Amino acid sequence: MEISYTPQVFVAKELREVSRDFTKPEEMIREAIHNSLDAGATEIYIAVSTDDTHGVDDELLIEIIDNGEGMDSYELKSFFDLGASKKRRNKKTIGEKGHGTKIFYNSTEVIVITKTSEGKTIRAVLAEPLKKLNVSVRKGCDNPPIVLMEELDTEDNCLSSMKSGTYISIRGYDSNVTATFSHKFLKDYILWFTAWGSVGNEIDSVEKPNCRLFLRGFGTNQYEEIPYGHPFPPESYNFDLLNTIDDRRPENFYIRRWVLPNIPVNDFPQHSIDIVFGVEGDGAKRKFNEMLKWPGKPTNNRYRGDDQYTVSERYGIYLCKDYVPIQRKNEEFAERSEWTKWHAFVNSQSFELTANRATVDNTPKRLLNSIINTAKNVIADLILGTPEYLEFAERVKIEAGRRKAELERKQVKRRLAKVKDKKHFVITKDNKKLEFLEPKSEQGVIWLLAQINALWPQTFKWRVLDIDSHFGYDLLVEQPHIVTNVGEHRFVECKYKLTDGEDFNHSFLYLHQVICWESPLLQDDEITDIQGMKYRFQMFDKNSNEKMRKYFLDSGRPNKIEVIILSRFLEDNFNLTTI
User: Fold this and answer.
1) Is the full-model pTM beyond 0.85?
2) What value, to the nearest 5°, has the Cα angle with vertex 78 and ends 76 and 81?
């Protein structure tokens, strides 16, 4: 006997998880813009503010209003539903999974007022969505928050002057974190990672929306109209002209762009890609992008803020869908020294995105590899091999060599100055002499040990078998046993200065000696190893039986760890003097 069963979904849990999949708060603005564009809006207004009318100090309030086609009651329900997008069959729309607006659930209140061209206006209120989802999941009962809907008087609401449109307000979004809602940050984000900043604006065959977008984020009281399209700087690649800008580094202001549309994908000719590939010197990038960090002292009228980024953090080559950058793939295409000069995009409508639009990893692997390989081949053949690009790359290479040589010259001067500030010492014994500079690092201590061992090989009673200062103990040594004379393998740790706050990345269990240049430690000061074992610093002065000062780390167990403080050791044994 067959038994049929329909799998069930824990709706509250899924809604909460999807709202959490969107990990960047600003992604909510992206989803709102995409919905407005899909609705055919000709005007979009986005405003960010804080409000205390609901009894919460500085409650984040985000408002979006557009004059798009609006939603009927069925479409409005889908707005709040999961995976119920009505756009799947329309290839011109951006949203298709029915996940994007669920990012709004990460808030204390969502209000949607929408009006269709027939004149019907509906208001929907979702109260305390995040709180109710959390309670439902914790109790294990599937009680998602309820959306209350009502029809409004068409003459008395925020859309009454419009033929159609939608107003959305979101309160308390992301626990009222406001850091990413500054005006400059949002403007930059909109122009880089939303459909409003479409790289398709560079391609003649791509349809452009008849729309205007206005933004008012934190830091301004006025709406600013944001221009449509990704911000590419105007081309400038004539080196005769560039020399008039910077005759020393003209390539720093080089700007060249290639647009290669509708390229069939290798092995998948039914799919295609579009490439918009820009090459820009760092000076040009900083001139046209105020969000780039500026090296050196602040420049007059130049923006500086915590939301700025470096060239390597933003530029390179992006994979796009709907002409919106989704994922950087720099290492797939070039070495770091090359891709930091790129301002490049590869678009394919065949990419399948993850639910939060963060990656293209849902694309079938063979197709994804073919798209990337096609792009790599086209870029190599039609861009990287052109005389313009080769000249630019050669100039960049020459300049990099010149800057490296200049840096090395400065390093020589700097190190010579440091040498002059260092103390010069001399030690003598058995008619041998060694002059050296005071070590200022662990490597300097190791180098001094090597010189002492070369001239006076019996000084430390052990023979170095291996040196490795990158991980673990510095020296592996062999020392004859005091009774059997059989060689025993031990570890020696080198330090410039031994202190009670020393950061040891290993235990002392297998440590034979610590050798340092100096130490401020006093009698009974404690040192703790990586296992939390405590050792007391013990000091013993010279006497009639001992001709040198001795130091140990004592844990109260046998086998104390000897500490050799080289500056004092050399005074006692080698007549250390300052030159």
Assistant:
1) no
2) 125
